[in-house]
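Q: Given only this backbone (429 positions), what sequence would you predict?
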């Protein structure tokens, strides 16, 4: 306990916190809290030097202490401070490593990297400059090379070559797979197994030894696609859907094959009929009202087809039935081809239905179209297109083109006894 014997006011206070003239009044009851005391801390007692050291020591968090929470009332030891700083530095480096690419180890960029001045590889072994020009020792493409313009000073051997521009070379190009180009300019093309042109191919001189065909071709009235081909006797034949001649057409012999219930071709479907009267409705839209002879076999959404040769031209329409009224059918006028008008005497054959699957089947028999008899079974005819609708074709299949039907099966062997060709069935079910 401190015993104050005398008090005096110095002329100049020792502490700047006490202004000149301040009176210091001694208080009583002050107590010193020793190291072993359990007294509470108050404004009327003080800590001994040992107790002060103990209090400070009790608030220091050691390096091995992992349970004490860091607060404003404690402090870290020197080792713990270094440990916390080291952990913070490692965490910061990890975050930087996730954001920036490393210059000393292999790294991966998750987004696009833009090199404004180009890219050097190795000791000037290869480069890509800022204009996009590249110089490499060698180039290996596991899938394909796609280029606008490809210039080869020597020979080139590739699996698949795809170019949207020109290919110019003074040597040979050996294409082991497909060659796809927009403009194929090869000064010396020694050998190409498959040549596929996806866009436009300009051919200055073309010689066709066998045929030109669409990807899928089936001959006859119920067929699809197109084909220009050479027959067995040497004649060249062209089979298409429509032909437009802007000027003169010279025909040495014109053979018109008309499909009827007999003679040549026979269509077996759900309905047929002959037009006995034609009229138009008033208002908008306009419908043709076609009176049908005999029993009414047509129903709504039936697709009726007429194809007849009269007065030097072919009348053709294949249109849906809008509705049926007693002995007549209504067909929207706008669905007819330009310049085509139905007339009395038109023979209509139901060939498909827009909505009813039970009326979408057709059986077609022919023996005169190309001299090759066959029976065709079509199903799923729900539009005015027969593409992909042939399910079974029974008979002679010569001249057909179909990627689903190998060419090796299209050539029919002859029977040794009669010399005639065997019968094959093509089925797509």
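A: Predicted residues:
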């Amino acid at each position: 306990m401190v015993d104050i014997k005398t008090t005096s006011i110095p002329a100049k206070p020792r502490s700047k916190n006490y202004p000149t003239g301040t009176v210091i009044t001694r208080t009583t009851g002050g107590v010193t809290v020793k190291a072993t005391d359990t007294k509470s801390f108050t404004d009327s007692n003080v800590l001994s030097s040992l107790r002060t050291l103990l209090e400070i020591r009790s608030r220091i968090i050691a390096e091995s202490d992992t349970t004490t929470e860091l607060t404003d009332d404690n402090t870290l030891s020197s080792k713990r401070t270094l440990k916390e700083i080291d952990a913070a530095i490692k965490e910061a480096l990890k975050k930087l490593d996730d954001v920036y690419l490393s210059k000393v180890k292999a790294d991966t960029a998750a987004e696009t990297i833009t090199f404004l001045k180009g890219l050097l590889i190795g000791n000037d072994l290869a480069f890509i400059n800022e204009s996009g020009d590249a110089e490499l020792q060698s180039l290996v493409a596991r899938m394909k090379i796609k280029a606008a313009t490809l210039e080869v000073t020597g020979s080139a051997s590739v699996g698949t070559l795809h170019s949207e521009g020109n290919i110019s070379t003074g040597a040979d190009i050996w294409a082991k797979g497909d060659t796809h180009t927009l403009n194929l300019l090869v000064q010396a093309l020694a050998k190409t197994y498959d040549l596929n042109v996806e866009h436009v191919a300009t051919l200055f001189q073309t010689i066709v030894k066998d045929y030109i065909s669409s990807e899928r071709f089936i001959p006859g009235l119920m067929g699809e696609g197109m084909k220009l081909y050479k027959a067995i006797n040497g004649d060249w034949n062209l089979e298409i859907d429509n032909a437009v001649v802007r000027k003169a057409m010279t025909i040495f012999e014109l053979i018109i094959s008309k499909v009827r219930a007999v003679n040549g071709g026979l269509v077996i479907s759900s309905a047929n009929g002959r037009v006995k009267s034609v009229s138009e409705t008033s208002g908008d839209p306009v419908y043709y009202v076609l009176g049908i002879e005999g029993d009414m076999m047509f129903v709504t959404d039936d697709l009726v087809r007429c194809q007849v040769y009269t007065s030097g031209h072919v009348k053709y329409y294949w249109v849906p039935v809008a509705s049926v009224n007693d002995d007549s059918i209504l067909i929207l006028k706008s669905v007819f081809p330009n310049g085509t008008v139905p007339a009395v005497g038109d023979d209509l054959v139901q060939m498909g239905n827009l909505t009813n699957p039970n009326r979408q089947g057709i059986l077609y028999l022919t023996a005169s179209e190309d001299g090759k008899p066959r029976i065709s079974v079509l199903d799923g005819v729900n539009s005015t297109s027969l593409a992909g609708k042939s399910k079974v074709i029974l008979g002679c299949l010569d001249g057909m083109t179909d990627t689903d039907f190998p060419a090796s099966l299209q050539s029919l062997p002859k029977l040794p006894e009669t010399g005639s060709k065997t019968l094959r069935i093509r089925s797509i079910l």
